Give the backbone structure.
Amino acid sequence: MSEDRNVDVQAFLNQHPFSRYQWLIFALCLSIVLLDGFDTAAIGYIAPSLIKEWGVSKPALAPVLSAALFGLAAGALGAGPLADLLGRKRLLVVSVLVFAVACLGAAFAGDLSQLTTLRFITGVGLGAAMPNAVTLMSEYCPDKRRAMITNAMFCGFPMGAAFGGFLAAWIIPQWGWRGVLLLGGALPLVLVVLLVALLPESVRFMVARAQPVERIRRVLGHISASAADAKSFFLTEVKQTIEGKTGLGVVLSRSYAVGSVMLWVAYFMGLVIFYALINWMPILFKDAGIAPKDATLIAALFPLGGVGAILFGWLMDKFNGNRIVAFGYALTAAGIFVIGQASGSVGLLMLAVFVAGAAMNTAQSSLPSLAAGYYPTQGRATGVAWMMGIGRFGGIAGSLLVAELSRRQLSFATIFAVLAIPGVIAAVALIVKQIAHPETASDKKVLAGEVLAH
């Protein structure tokens, strides 16, 4: 076989086995997402200690708890376009450094206002890191395994959040709440060094930006030695490119605008559900007459099952991704509705909470991969980042929604019936995306069948 002329980089990735170098990239991106999950959840773990040490009320903690959410949105919305302009690696290194330094600084905060400011800055870094890790990883994947590998990486977020809980339970009794934030800042600083030394720039970005052939050849040489004979590289975009536009210009172009808005709606609605139930489910269960200990344990079933995203990724690589994820949201809506009808049966309630949580976390974790596959290289980072950034406001809306429903003294069943509606909306949004910008079986065949020009 001769590869001595013009090499299509995606066809190169499709043809060669997934290499140790690509697994290294996966490990580095997974580490970013794990630490993202840990640092995002950290404030929840230390909140009781803050109340005890500083003598503040629970309502006074609201700005601290929400500051990171606003920062996550700001970071994602700003970093996506910058990554499409300046590169994925550069933005990843800077964003991880930002949330490392801010988290370390938060460990030395003297009052709530300082902590709130530092949590916002931490959120900016976290919000910028997550979508760019998804984008860079997706751009090193073969087409036929992209969704599964990207979804597997994204599972690091709930893993990081859960692992953070175990660490916090061990750290706080020995070193206090500041120890949790010190660890949450020190680990990313180590990761920054590894990213600078080991993480390559996206090869698709390098080709799209006409960077030196030697640099591209050197990176692809880690995947297969056959890249050494290549004289030049090019991209074949299966997705339509937009002449003269990058970043937001692509995302909001006539060719992509409807699908973009539908992705925003789906991600927003998913986070409405997630934050509404994570924050309020134990309280709602107690109000329905379930023993406090049982209410907490049943609610803890909801975040489990996110690893189902790997199965969804496998299905998305083989079948229609829009319909697969839409089914996940429809199942979420059904599960949430059943929760509202099951307060009299602990067994049925546990099953409904687990099914709803597994479906919701799986569908939500699959959306970044779906978005990464929807856009061409010139707008991919912005597309993923803006979906996640706008979606963050859904988390804020979810908490406020249940507070308002509770204030109106609606019944247990009615509250959960209302919370099922966002799942239906998310499913419909993805069907609309499929109608407006169809993903067809022939697309899969084209992706899987690409070969190197000989």
Remarks:
- The longest strand covers residues 6-8.
